[in-house]
Amino acid sequence: MREWRSLLPIIIFTALYAALSLSVTNSYYQLVMTLVPVWAIFGLSWNLLSGYTGLISFGHAAFFGVGAYAVVLGQIHFDLSPWIMIPIAAVLGGIAGLLIGFPTFRLQGHYFALAMLAYPLAILYVFEWLGLQEVTLPIKRENAAAYMQFADHRLYTLLALAMMFATILLTRAVERSRFGMALLAIKQNEAAAEAAGINTLAWKLRAVTLSGAVAGAIGGFYAVVLLVVTPQSVFGMLVSAQALTVAMFGGVGTVWGPVIGSVILIPLAETLNAEAGSRFPGIQGVIYGLAIICVILLAPEGLFWKVRDFWRKRSAALVTASPGASDVPATAAPIPLHPKRSAGTGDIVLEVRNLSRSFGGLKAVQDVSFKLRQNEILGIIGPNGAGKTTLFNLLNGFLRPDTGQILLDGREMAGRKPHALCEAGIGRTFQIMRPFLRMSISDNVVVGAYVRAKTDDEARQLAADAIARVGLSGIADRIAGELTTKELRLMELARALAGQPRILLLDETLAGLGHDEANEVVEVIQRLARDGMTIAIIEHTMQAMVRLVDSFLVLDHGAVIVEGEPEAVTRDSRVIEAYLGKKWVAHAPH
Amino acid sequence: MLRIEGLTAGYSAIPVLNGVSIKVEEGQFVAIVGPNGAGKTTLFKTISGIVRPSAGTIAFEGHDLLSIKPAQRAHLGIAHVPEGRQVFPSLTVMENLEMGAMTEAGRRDWKDNIQRIFEWLPILAERRGQFAGTLSGGQQQMLAIGRGLASSPKLLMLDEPSMGLAPTTADFIFERLIEIRRQSKLTILLVEQRVAEALESADHGYVLEAGRVALEGNNQTLRADDRIRKAYLGM
Amino acid sequence: MTQALEGFLQALSAGLLIGAVYGLMCVGLGLIFGVMRVINFAQGDFMMLGMYAAFYFFTAFGVQAAFGNTIGPFVAIVLAGPVLAVFGYFVHLTLISRVSGTRTSSLEGEGHYAQLILTLGIALILQNGGLLVFGSVLASIRTPLSSSAWELGPMFNDISVFVNKARGIDAVLSLVTMILLTLMITRSRIGKSLRAAADNPTAATYMGIDVDRAHRIAFALGTGITAIAGGLLATNYPFHPFVGVEYVIVMYAGVVLGGMGSIIGAFWGGMTIGLVQQMSTLILPTQLQNAAIFVVFLLIVFFRPQGFFGRMVERT
Q1: How far apart are CA A115 and CA C221, in angstroms?
Q2: Is C136 within 8 Å of C240 (Cβ atoms)?
Q3: Is B14 helix (H, G, I), strand (E, B) or coil?
Q4: Does C35 touch chain B (CB under 8 A)?
């Protein structure tokens, strides 16, 4: 029921647009009305990849052009109707997406953007060389409708609208499913997404394939509408720019964005082109250029988000925000000094043997060995540069060890990819959090559950359980952008828990918390351990650590110098020397 | 010379410094020690202008430092020898030193300064044409110090000069520092991990913990205090 | 056999000559990227503006009248450089600085994406604005030197290689500019502070170097140099407002090949691209010349992204 309600705006929009188009008689304006949904669909296809994953593609014209040429050449050489060719164009676009995505996703930053720019331009030159400078769809006198050639041009608009509606439904389905959530997680923080069990490469490939398919289909339709295809008109830079502009102007990462962008920009540009085009050639491009610049400087995420954030702020100011207390009691009562659990006698969950890793000449981790038992909390400490984060990166799969073994429940884990390790049961939090600021705690946490849950419903259940375990159930619907640092840390914890890990690697979970807040988080961690979790934690806030952990592993210059209980370790001369220097130990009071 | 009061600063939402107040008189050697995350490097970055504080004041020789752009602060006479050396790897040793002398005072005193720098740190003279990126850690540290001296500073700030260096190299650097101080009467603000060495040579010491000044005093008073160990190790 | 050898040598010499100019073109971009780490999609369009600036200096602002047809064009080109440099300075001041430099150094990765989009917007405005202002008629800067050549030879086997005079002078001017730039970068204080700002912006600020100003200078310089290269190309090939798009990939291919971050590398990268382009005509049809460049570009990006001299690699 709720699904249909939320579709209402789109249904109304489509109906109004259809009515409007039926009343327009001028053939040029009708063409503009047809093109608006066409570019909206192209923008939506761009959005499917770049809007959701954050990997900005400057080369979507490649898929668009492939689709366009497929439809035209298909009809010329094989007499296949566009009704058949457009779906085939979609398939070809999808294949193109896969072929392009697979090698290109290995590139980062500038290189990715440049490579994506190069593809359609390269194809453009090849097509020009092949002599396909200008191909025209042959006109069919009989049976025109079977070849998608309508005398009444309003039918094209209606067809385009139908395709746009379908694309919107598709995009929404993606957005709300784990597909969309996984892509968003990748956009926010790819490393964290991997660590949460998301196979980032697989999801990116799915996104580019779907994106390419939609672009190919609409490219095919574009060819039908315009009847003539040239390499420049479908592979050119302006085409790629149009997809990008329309989506960015309207709003990235949302269904409405490309539609809004297209509705505003296309008529504007086309009208200017028609009215002033002969006296001011190129005015279209100038408008797009200005639109892009204004958007990126003033509203980098697009009109939609700017307006929505603005409204949100206004309505939030009017409604007094309910405190909605988190379940964690805000006591300042001192925590008992590490309650004696059965630490030291449980089953060995994680065993690390002779782990080493160097960077060039620098030995970051040297021959580190230790065991983690069930229910145990191990604190990993050491002075700056001691190798603690490198150790975690090795345990987590971000780095390959040079030598050594990592055994989880006896199974060798070293060298596996982070999402595989998460699946095997190693969960991790990060020091720098990048939550989905516009989404609720539930949505943020559910991403961590996908690695374990088979269905989206199961994922939601696991997420709710995790949220309860950290005590945030009371505010589970609150938007992450409004949370305090403590609540954000607990949310991070919940996300890692949602994957039902065997062990948790906590990286500076207490950083940035005040004294009382740190105590609250410590309590939550202690509870988790009591209930059966095994935890390794890196932290600088020693005051809280000494009360939390069962034992310390002290690293210096990448090697283990001491392992033992807090009392002993903090008075051990080797540890004092590592932190305060040799001379201090020599003359210090004992 | 340098007066910091109630400084609060951090990165994004996470506060690192929480109301820190520190004083450095002209000619003094002040040491700042404390565990990781206490805010020592953030303090230096705030003085140099890379980090903007949310509260508090910094006065240098009467000027309100916070109203002065970061690139301008060096010209007032503040030299910052950063954590991790941060030399310019694709420039030679000599060019690095030239970069240090970009200030007015630096350019004015260049001839004298470069002579003295080469006396104190002869390895720099030996390798003046070598690319800084190919120097060893200890040599880079000396270069960083030389670069700081080349600006003819009034205040020399050093951030963990011994970090990542072998103990003997670190000792050597420290010795040189003491020598430089003796001969030049510079005002020095030093952040160090090796607490004993730092406090020994300093006139005054501050212990930073969790963004606040936990202890202060001179070598005698601080040496005997077990609270320093507690500040680092928690119990 | 002799004919093939002659053809080979001719292509080689053509490649070297055009390569020198491509090299200069890439150096402009390489300077911007090396110092500021900014991807500038509009670089090709700045070059296009340089071409038109030279053209108008030559035809409309009296340079042709004053210096005649033979050396006039070259004077005009040299004048166009500083003009575009000033233009670039202002573009940086008003637009580019908002998405780069010390303002965005705290935003991880955000800066890159914004730079790409912003410069794309600038590119569109320059291209289409150019169409509006200059019209779509092909323009060129004619010098009688472009229709005469020096003959090297006859050498062994009666082989001669013909060096087009205009292209020869272009290459020489290119090299001269390159040498002047290199001297400036390596010897002058400003050049050294640019390199320092590129190496370590934070440490540079500690030294009292205004990194934002350094970026502005680098951007202006890079724009001016690419404009000169454009003017040199204009003496041989007719141009139009959209010519920039064709050269953007050439420029990036050269910079990536030479190694992003190295200015000398950018020159050699451009030279290599010129050679590839000319020598590919020996085995490929002319129309696929540019496609060959793209293929080379993609190959480098995949298999050796750090190029020949590169200092930084961006790979997972």
Answers
A1: 26
A2: yes
A3: strand
A4: no
Number of structural domains found in chain A:
3
pLDDT greater than 90 at residue B222: no
* Assigned token pair, A257: 């964005």
Alpha carbon distance C28, C251 (integer Å): 9
Kindly tell me if the per-residue pLDDT of A378 is higher than 90: yes
Amino acid making up residue A215: A
Q: Are residues A508 and A467 in the same domain?
A: no
How high is the pLDDT of residue A395? 92
Question: C41-94 pLDDT, tens per residue?
Answer: 899 999 999 999 999 888 888 777 787 777 888 888 999 999 999 999 999 999
B89 touches chain C (CB under 8 A): yes
A433-446 per-position pLDDT tens digit:
788 888 889 999 99
Q: What is the pLDDT of residues C206-240, one digit of tens each?
A: 998 999 999 999 999 999 999 999 999 998 888 98
Q: Are residues A47 and A130 in the same domain?
A: yes
Given this model, what pLDDT does residue C314 score? Answer: 31
pLDDT at position A321 is 46
3-state secondary structure of B219: helix
What pLDDT is recorded for position A516? 84
For residue A105, the enclosing domain spans 9-312
Residues A269 and A416 in one domain: no
Overall pTM surpassing 0.90 (yes/no): no
Contacts of B92 (CB under 8 A, 6+ apart): B128, B129, B130, B131, B132
Cβ(C38)–Cβ(C229) below 8 Å: no
Residues A190 and A53 both lie in one domain: yes
Q: A253 falls in which pLDDT band (50, 70, 90)?
A: confident
Cis peptide before A258 (omega within 30 of 0): no
Residues across chain B: 235
Domain for residue A2, yes or no? no
Answer for the pair A403, A356: CB distance below 8 angstroms, yes or no: yes
**Tokens encoding B130:** 């070598």
For residue A173, tell me if it sits in a domain: yes
Residue ranges covered by each domain of chain C: 2-248
Same domain for A92 and A36? yes
Are both A231 and A161 inside the same structural domain? yes
Give the single-character DSSP code of B133.
Answer: G
pLDDT digits (tens, 9 = 90+) for A444-487: 999 999 988 888 889 999 999 999 999 999 999 888 888 888 99
CA angle C145, C148, C154 (to 5 degrees): 140
- The Cα of A293 is separated from the nearest Cα of chain C by a number of Å equal to 5
Instruction: Give pLDDT, residue A325.
Output: 44
Beta bridge partners of B57: B5
Q: Is A583 on the interface with B (CB under 8 A)?
A: yes
Instruction: Write the Ramachandran bin of A64: left for phi over 0, alpha for psi from -120 to 50, otherwise beta.
Output: alpha
> Is some CB atom of chain B closer than 8 A to the CB atom of A383?
yes
| Tens-place pLDDT, residues A514-572 | 778 888 999 999 999 888 889 999 988 788 888 889 999 999 888 999 999 998 988 88
> Which chain A residues are closer than 8 Å to B233 by Cβ?
542, 546, 569-570, 575-576, 579
Residues of B in contact with A586 (CB under 8 A): 196
CATH fit for domain B2-233, picks 3.40.50.300, 3.40.1280.10, 3.50.50.60, 2.60.40.10 = 3.40.50.300
Question: Does residue A92 sit in the same domain as residue A49?
Answer: yes
Answer whether B164 touches A (CB < 8 Å).
Answer: yes
Same domain, A102 and A39: yes
- CATH number of the domain encompassing residue A400: 3.40.50.300
Q: Is the Cβ–Cβ distance between A534 and A503 less than 8 Å?
A: yes
Handedness of CA C11, C13, C18, C20 (dihedral sign): positive
pLDDT of residue A324: 47
**Sheet with A362-373: strands ordered across:** A362-373, A348-359, A403-408, A411-412
The arithmetic mean of pLDDT across residues A12-39, rounded, is: 88
